[in-house]
Amino acid sequence: MKITRPSTLRVFKKYQPRQIAKFAKGFFNGRIFIAGLGRFRVVDGKVVAYKHLIAEQKVLMAVSEINKMVLELSHPKVVIA
Asked: Which candidate, 56, 19, 49, 12, places its Cα nearest to that of 34?
C-alpha cells in the first residue's frame, strides 16, 4: 500500500510577488495557483514552473521575480548608519 502525503494547493487571486514569496519560503513544498499565470510548484522554498508553462515569457519572468523575493527575504540587507 502506497501512502502519499496530501499536496496543498494555495490559490492567489492576484499576482503579488512578495506575498507569494513569503508563502513559498515558509511552506517549502507544495503547489500554488496564481490567477492569470497558472499552476506552479514550490520545491525547497522556490517556485518552479511546470514543463508546459516554461515556454511562456511572462511565466518565466514571474518565477524569476518571486524567487528573487524569496532570496531577499532569506538574506535581508543590513544597513549600517
From this structure: 12
Q: What is the pLDDT of residues 26-59, one digit of tens each?
A: 887 899 999 999 999 999 889 999 888 778 899 9
pLDDT tens digits, one per residue of 13-24:
999 999 999 999
| Fold annotation for 9-74 | so0334 like fold (3.30.1910)
Residue ranges covered by each domain of the chain: 9-74
DSSP string, 15-77: --HHHHHHHHHHH-SEEEEETTTEEEEEETTEEEE-GGGTT-HHHHHHHHHHHHHHHHHHSPP
Beta-bridge partners for 12: 34
Edge to edge, the sheet with strand 38-43 lists 9-12, 30-34, 38-43, 46-49
